[in-house]
Amino acid sequence: MSQSSHSRRDFLSLSGKAGFSTLVASAAGINLGVIDVVHAQTSGAFSPFRFAMISDSHLFSEADHKFDRQLEDAVAQVNAMAVKPDFVLFGGDIAQNGTEDQLVKGKKILSKLNTRLMVIPGEHDWYLDLGKTWKGLYGVNNSDHWSFDHKGVHFIGLNGILVQDFWTAKNLSPRERMAAMEMLEGPIGGLWGVGPEQLDWLKKDVAKLSPATPVVIFTHAPLWDYYPRWNFQEADAPQIREILSKFVNVTSFHGHVHHTVYNKIGNLSSIGAMSTSWPWPYPPIALPYPASQQNRADPGNEKDGMGTLAASFTSATGSKVVQYQPFEDSLNDFLKNGIHA
Ligand SMILES: [Fe+2]
Ligand SMILES: [Fe+2]
Known about the structure:
The protein is an alpha/beta fold. The chain has 8 helices and 14 strands. α1 packs parallel to α2 (about 100-110) and α2 runs parallel beside α4. The longest helix has 14 residues, at about 65-80. It binds fe (ii) ion (2 copies). One fe (ii) ion (FE2) binds near residues 56, 58, 258 and 275. One fe (ii) ion binds near residues 56, 58, 93, 122 and 275.
């Protein structure tokens, strides 16, 4: 990206055919990434559909906190989509400190969505009571991982924030355990992942699926080593990618990084969601090609760099358009018209 383009918004388009992808990145004056992955196979009967993603609301206990309003804005934005999403995925970190009042507040706000809601946990939701309250409110039959088939696409949600027990030996209180996991740098909790039980479950879950089935997988953190110091990673991502290696088309959506980021490893495209609370800075690394960075958020605009995303599936092979929907952007009108590569 040239220096002169830093004052403009980034535009990313990508199309790939059977493992090949071409990236065209240029400054096009918009604050979204459009990622259009096209595969070679032709589709049979198929109804195009869309889902939306909201992530990382980090609700505090205070009444009428600005993060409450920002989550409400996200719900309103999704409810106003011209093409109604078939479901909404919440990508984790509903709460800031994992307390029951914060998780209940999130449930109340998200209940205003006019479509089905699926949720995966983030570390901020989990480590006060090790998921007890979260599972009761958001789990599928009290479980933190799930899958379902929708219009020919197989969707999977995993709990990706599990760490080894670091608290018992240190005799930490639940609040101290939560505080250790709330830090962006995580030297106490260490690297997290989905753990062996979910890996076994995943193997069984996809065993009977045909390789042509498009797969979409949700974890709180990326399925690649983006920046492990901040847990911008899942420790067992290599095993997950191996289990899913038979599929032609796998797409991973994640939260936790609080900014737009894209990467592709083998058959797996990885897409990060913006948060509704605050934007994290980009980690101090150079991203490998073809990853894309948006410009840094405008500190004079409290909602810049935050928003939701919509993913539209356009064929049975998993062709899709992913569209970031920022809350505030001078070019939102342009965005609403839809931009496809
Ligand atoms: Fe978060
Ligand atoms: Fe997180």
